[in-house]
Amino acid sequence: MTDVDASHRQRRIHEVFAALFVSGSFVTGMTIVLFWALCTVLGRHLVPYDPLADDILNALAPPSAEHWFGTDQLGRDIFSRVIVGSRDILTVAPLATILATGVGTVLGLLTGYFRGVVDDVVSRFNEAMMAMPSVIVALLAIVALGTSETTVIIVIGLSFAPVIARTVRSTVLAERELDYIAAAKLRHENSMHIMFVEILPNILPPILVEFTVRLGYAIFAVATLSFIGFGLQPPSPDWGLSISTNYSMISGGYWWAVVFDALAIASLVIGINLVADGLQGALND
Amino acid sequence: MSRFLGRRFAFSLTTLFLLSLLVFFVGQVLPGNVGRTILGPLADQEAVDALNRQFGLDRPIVEQYGTWIWHFLQGDMGQSYIYGVPVAPFIVQALGNSLKLALVAFMLVVPLGILGGVLAALNADRPIDRVISMGGLSATVMPEFVSGVVLIMIFGVWLRWLPISAAWPEGAGPLTQLYYVILPAIPLVLVLFGYIARMTRASMIEALDSDYTRTAVLKGLTWRRVIWRHVLRNALLPTITVIASQTGYLIGGLIVVETLFRYQGIGSLIFRAAKAKDFAMLEAGVLIIGITYAVATLLADILYSILNPRIQMETAND
Amino acid sequence: MTRNASWLDNLRAGLTPPENHLIDGYVDGRVSRREFLRHGSLLGLSLPFLGRVGLATGLGAAPSVARAAGQPGATIRVACTAPEAEIDPVLVGDYGAFLMLQQVGEFLCVDGPDLLLRPSLATSWKSNEDGSVWTFTLRKGVKFHSGGEMRADDVVATMDRLADPKNSSNALSVFKGILQSGATRKVDDYTVEFHLNGPNGNFPYLVSSDNYNAIILPASYPGHYETAWDGTGPFRLHKYTRNVGASFIRNEEYWGRKSLPARTEFTFFADIQPQILALQAGEVDIINKLPALAGVALLNDPSVNVMTIKSSAHQPVHMQCDSEVFKDPRVRQAVSLCLDREKLKTGLMKDRAIIGNDSPLASVYPSADPSVPQRKQDIRKARELMKAAGKENGFQVALTTEQYLEIPAYAQLIQRWVKEIGIDLTLDIMDRNVFYGDAVRGKSPWRDSVMGIADFGHRGVPNVFLTAILTSDGSWNSANLQNREYDALAKSYIGTLDLESQRQVAGQIQRLLLEETPVLYGYFFDHLTAMAKHIVGVQPTAMGQLFLQEAGKA
């Protein structure tokens, strides 16, 4: 890698950042995501009540000056729970996505670079995984392994890896025909070096975009698993879990037991998508 | 072409075989046992053991798998432990239901998605494009239970316009069935709209930029004709791939929708079978999704190559 | 009393000592009217008879279910949980399945909503003096849906089928050690004798609707129940669709009063929430089994009636007595003293429950000794006990349980409360099937957890709760209680026939369990059935069965 390359790359990064900060969707999305990230880190200190403190004789109280979003089945303050509720999902989903991206990138590099038998075998496994809806794969694995945050991270991470591997693989296929790879081969660089030092930095942008997109799906998956009782566990104030326990309440007029959690999920998901969109726009310009 | 298809077919078979093995071994580590599930947690152990012996569950696992796959290859999907009857009718019925729901969702979402994508592309980077693109993308990752619960509340409980349970009465005609399936289909439409609109938009923009569009315009064709005959046709190609890649989800991944709306599809069938360790049912359910997925991708490849002969068969797999 | 003494004497002629003992207790005021009726029905004194004793002693007549004012010919639509497996009377063990069985099948006697045994296919029953042989007289003129008349041979075959270990029978958990295959004998076409392994004071409950497998089938029953759905009940099966629902139609040949509804329809659900929505959307008329916490929207809904039946259903919290953290009974008592039972009752169970006192002898059982003091929340005392046990710094332990009804909420409340005495509970809440696992030690989180919450349905008599869960060799003894004194007391309770002796043993058991506290019994929750306002005449049981023959729309 030459100095010219490095300075070119630096300039490119500046351009991307400049593009990002004038992109309305990126800024809006990032604001939302940062808000929830802040709640994840500091939530406990910001909220008026302990999100786990029950007051069961004051259950399902409507929104009031005292409880802005009302109270839930056990009399817990919903406002505090919604604010703190981002914590588990914003820990589990990103970790799962990082795992998926890591595994997927390595698989994609290997299969795309070597092709041949490695490619055929790994691709068949990937295809077998992708033939199955990820919810089913995750469910089977969680029923088998037992529910815990670690299991959820591993299961979602591994079940998302094939999709990322496919994206990376097709990028690598295009990349390996380029001159700098041929040059590296002429220098007798070993394959590991070519894959991880030469190719990887050049395909980072699509991987980054794929990461943000998958993060949205990971949140979808974690929330779904929690909703059907195989994800996060009580007493976590997780949004999906809260909706699952309370969704029959709306019809009794207790809409506040569900609506705020639903809005919270919606805002986070939209925020992440705005970021992904802004990122994609900036990188493609 | 036939060489390409043959290769694809062989790949699909390998994939399905791997899938069956995968499910089999996952099935082995699933907790619980069949006799216990049937008799309940409080049944006497002696009774549970007797029942498991009767099912042959005390045999070595490889033997169990061997017997099962031998029969499966001969077209016999086996017996459900839990229901004591052949699995096939369950699978056929559940698959039928899943296909119905998927079909209704498709009929709604494909025109809507393409329309949305075209509108967005024609108004690229204007507010209408932003709304469609961002709205679609957000709907795609909105968990179905969020939209499903809202729909149930509005249309089922408050307005009472649509039935909240998708189980239609016996002997209902296609129209009645459709009436029952609309509500559960909407969350699927929301999930898929974003994919299709986005794909259509991207390929539309590419097509609008292309030489043949410019040529067509220069030839003096009306804008409307150019859009219909040239742009749209080319823009639809990637949409086919997107649809094919979503069949697995549409057929088997609807556990939440099926649970919310009490719909008897493949997803909840597999879920129940997994929890009860009903092995034959689990295997058959998973393989049927695998087969549907394989068939759909194969069809998409064929369709793609017919519509766009420029594609090189050898790289279609990449 | 003197006024009616001779009539009473006449009534008493020919009764066994336990029966006369019961009447004495009633006349002297040691036994309340409710307890008298209930225990009397168990001993086989008919309700009219009990009513006459009541009249003779000047205390009013026995309760009876009045025919409701519903219109005949209605279609009644019920929401219920889906049967988990093939419907087979010998095998089934889940609510959905035995609700289906009970629609077409009938029992020798029925454990009614007031926990009184009522005659059904048997018209009367009585025991020998020590309660080891019970004689049931069968109803005449009862026809199976398949045509034949029900006779003693059919009852004998049914009971033998259920008591035979070779048949994988679910009823083994009830009959094992009590009634063996071959011990049911025909006396004549309409009389059957049960020769038990030993005295059993509560035997009729074991062949009543409480033992949901015990519907009477023809001796010629060939298996594969779902092909014929035979039975003797007021409804016949019309159509059964797995995982979807079932419909039943009036049985015109029924031995009793013909059913009011022309048709009943059951819709299966996996979960309670959609059932509530279905009732509110008008798609069903009845929810068979409504948990109070999840159903709170209906409890306050003016368009819905919620019927309440007292039951002994509960969610016991076991603490392993041989575990490092709980081996000292003082620690177990301390945990128990953290529970605010009043709050559990009003808050968690919305007042649809009775408070428990750390023993399965719920106050719904007439044999429970009401003089045993109720345990109440006392954090100060709990802290002292922890200190005395050398655990004043607390400890960490996992509370393992299932995703079922109110249990997750209950677990969270316990978690908050025991924090007060320094115990850090981590919750491990899993799917129900996973939690019970193989239900044997080593292969079941339920049996292996140091602390766990299980769920038990209603039983008309506490026998199973007293033996299987708490005796040293009990098959569901998750707490690992090994206490010889307790074992002896439980055995003596089972063998006791008369109410006062039962209550005396019960008092000893209750006190011993307060001392040992292997299992927390916080509450016993009512069986709730929700129905649209215009539906009348529905008769649920605490077991979760639903009698619809008198139901109609007002």
Model description:
The complex is a heterotrimer of chains A (285), B (318) and C (554). Chain A is mainly α and 285 residues long. Chain A is built from twelve helices and no strands. The radius of gyration of chain A is 22 Å and the shape is elongated. In chain A, 55% of the residues are buried. The mean pLDDT of chain A is 85. Chain B is built from 14 helices and no strands. By secondary structure, chain C is of the alpha+beta class. Helices cover 31% and strands 20% of the residues of chain C. Chains A and B meet through α5, α6, α7, α10 and α11 of A and α1, α6, α7, α11 and α12 of B.
Question: Termini distance of chain C?
Answer: 43 Å
Number of helices in the DSSP assignment of chain C = 20
| Secondary structure: number of strands of chain C | 23
Principal-axes shape call of chain C: globular
Number of helices of chain B: 14
Strand content of chain C: 15-25%
Mean pLDDT of chain B: 80
In summary, what is this structure?
By secondary structure, chain A is mainly alpha-helical. Chain A has helices at 3-22, 24-46, 78-84, 86-114, 116-131, 134-145, 149-175, 179-186, 191-202, 204-227, 239-246, 256-284.
Key features of this structure:
heterotrimer; A: 285 residues; mainly alpha; MetI-like fold; B: 318 residues; 75% helix; disordered C terminus
Ordered list of secondary-structure elements with their pairings:
The complex is a heterotrimer of chains A (285), B (318) and C (554).
Chain A: H1 3-22, H2 24-46, H3 78-84, H4 86-114, H5 116-131, H6 134-145, H7 149-175, H8 179-186, H9 191-202, H10 204-227, H11 239-246, H12 256-284
Helix pairs in contact in A: 1-12, 2-4, 2-12, 4-5, 4-7, 4-10, 5-7, 6-7, 7-10, 8-9, 10-11, 10-12, 11-12
Chain B: H1 2-29, H2 34-39, H3 45-54, H4 61-73, H5 88-122, H6 127-140, H7 144-158, H8 174-209, H9 211-218, H10 223-245, H11 247-252, H12 255-260, H13 266-276, H14 279-307
Helix pairs in contact in B: 1-14, 5-6, 5-8, 5-14, 6-8, 7-8, 8-10, 9-10, 10-14, 13-14
Chain C: H1 5-12, H2 17-28, H3 33-42, H4 47-56, E1 75-81, H5 95-104, E2 109-111, E3 117-119, E4 122-127, E5 133-138, H6 152-163, H7 172-175, E6 184-188, E7 191-195, H8 203-206, H9 225-228, E8 235-241, E9 245-250, E10 263-269, H10 272-280, E11 286-287, H11 296-299, E12 304-314, E13 317-319, H12 329-338, H13 341-348, E14 353-355, H14 379-388, E15 395-402, H15 407-419, E16 423-430, H16 432-436, H17 445-448, E17 451-453, H18 463-467, H19 484-495, H20 499-516, E18 519-520, E19 523-532, E20 535-536, E21 539-540, E22 546-547, E23 552-553
Helix pairs in contact in C: 2-3, 3-4, 12-14, 19-20
